[in-house]
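2024-03-11 09:14:02 DEBUG pipeline.ingest accepted 1 chain
2024-03-11 09:14:02 DEBUG pipeline.ingest length=289
2024-03-11 09:14:03 DEBUG pipeline.predict start
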Amino acid sequence: MNKLKKSITVRFFSIDVENSFLNELTSNYRANLVNDNNTRIIGIRNKKHLVKTSPSIFHLGIEVYPVTVVRERNTWQTKATNDGKISSIEVNQGIIGDPYFFFIVPQLQLVIGFTSGPSVSLKSVGTSLLELFSNNRSKKIKLELIPKEKEFSKLIEITDYSSLHFKIGSSSLSDVSDDAPQLIKDLSNAPYLESNMQLALDLALDEHEESGISKENIIEIVNYLSNHDDCTVLKVKGRNSDGSTVHLDFGNAFVNFKTEISTRHKYIDEKIAHNVLEDALSYFNSKNS
């Protein structure tokens, strides 16, 4: 069997939470490994997730907690065989879905991860994962992409937005996460959307109009799309407090690590995934040392 090449983009998130959570995370993670079964299936937002914890490792002197998550892909409804038989997909003691690979790094208040599934859901899956290791589920845990450019902070400083322009593949809108902005949800349900279609939108903005998009909406949309590999263009135009025009380009605004692997399988196994994440952590440390 010929080897397949797969492109991988690792994302870096800072953990925004009360300091006590990091101690809870460490103790709860280690307690989970003591159990005979370090794998469990849980329900998150109407989808099953298989969560598998692995023994911690030390990389460059830093303790790292590897976690693999398989998120149910419930858009797969039937299977069809070459004899013409069509039936439902039935799985006993397991799920069918997309794999997500994470390194949790408490010492750096950092989570790094990637997926071969919809990359836009990486943040929400990672957040739900951290909540599993919290003693108090009412605590708000946030994962924030780490900006590559200082310019990203200027997005919040814009007082009057005039346009939002982005391009994204239609296939990426087929399975949007529950916490997606309303605009993205509306696009995913659009009747004119076809598969393998490049969607380009140029929206004129005026939040003072009744149907306008608010500043919070724009920030939410930019945050969401910036986390998506298939979003090739993402630009915002507006004016700041002194009335001068501001043009911002967020097509490559956040820290990421890109690599390519060769495999004989259609999926990425955990050993390869951990090697990729170790390389990504080395890259991150070299940029921040």
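2024-03-11 09:14:41 DEBUG pipeline.report The CA atoms of residues 206 and 213 lie 7 Å apart.
2024-03-11 09:14:41 DEBUG pipeline.predict end
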